[in-house]
Amino acid sequence: MFELSQDHEDFRAMVRDFAEREIAPHVAQWDRNHHFPTDLVPKMGDLGLFGLVVPEEFGGSADPEGGPFTALCVAIEELGRIDQSIGITLSAGVGLGINPILTYGSAAQKERWLPDLVSGRALAAFGLTEPDAGSDAAATRTKATLDGADWVVDGAKAFITNSGTDITSVVTVTARTGAGADGRPEISAIMIPPGTAGFEVAPAYDKLGWNISDTHGLNFTGVRVPQDSLLGDRGHGFKQFLKTLDDGRIAISALALGLLVRMREEAAAYAQERVAFGRPIGANQGVSFKVADLAVMEETARLLTYKAAWLKDQQEIGKRSVAEVKQAAAIAKLYTSEAAVTATRIATQIFGGNGFMEEYPVARFYRDAKILEIGEGTSEVQRMVIARRLGLSS
Fold this sequence. Notes:
Layout: H1 6-22, H2 27-33, H3 40-46, H4 68-82, H5 84-104, H6 107-119, E1 123-127, E2 143-147, E3 150-161, E4 168-179, E5 185-192, E6 199-201, E7 215-226, E8 230-231, H7 237-273, E9 275-276, E10 279-280, H8 285-316, H9 322-351, H10 361-369, H11 379-389
Parallel strand pairs: 1-4
Antiparallel strand pairs: 2-3, 3-7, 4-5, 5-8, 6-7, 9-10
């Protein structure tokens, strides 16, 4: 259960080689320039990264018995070890872009959108968060009204990944489409291609970290799309996205694990190379204990991440429950994201003044780490999910 298959390890080696060759030499400059490398996405597609959880009929390579979600986490970990922005590009591209269409889309929707998304010729995004509705996603204000054969969408979304690239082909957004019998808002998911009249992509955010990742606010003013743009059943959009978030939390855990691996590597190497008072600083317990702590955090995160990924793969073949996956995902995401923030602080401290300089990778990872405690559900939300599973009200 806690040992990856040889196929997974061989796949890891392939992704690591790709990341070292195609990404590592460029990330510092991309980060400085806030540049999203559009041409990298089809290369990732050629490697099969966007098709890991997608059946062959849609151009993917998923084998339900072979641990496809675990393979995705391996890929995200290895990309995240080199750069967190590139890791989240894959994580969001699959988890928030492809998966909702694959899971809830009609045959026509899958046929229209999946081939380009799986190949890396296009990216898709999912708009849930709003300026006034973050963790309280049920407070969605974006509205969609049926007018003849069309949905007319009005509202706004915030912090949407992969939503403004040159190759973004569709954004799925949650919107109020009415009210249920209990008076609560009926929330549905609607697919909107960029370029649709009234769909405005706001300028890219000026972010603390993830500078290579594409992130925008979105505005919808009288956006008109055909009725068959509804993704899944009407009124089920919120439930659909909650399930999507469970998977995404495991993916974020894998992303944080990649960061933890890199911080342990960087700190250990620097502690052996940096000399002070006539000997390597790693010879001092004050430093060596810090590196040991990084190793412990990395190992713990690895066990939690791949246990959750294994449970997800087992759930897909009917051997584990949704509730088990939800709890494991929340635990993994909570621990690994908070450990990642701590690890970057420790690594930066070991580097001393050099850790504050952008020429050293620990500075970039320090900036990138904080969002891991926020995206895909804050640490507070994870604690709420865990507590409820333990029978505690919150």
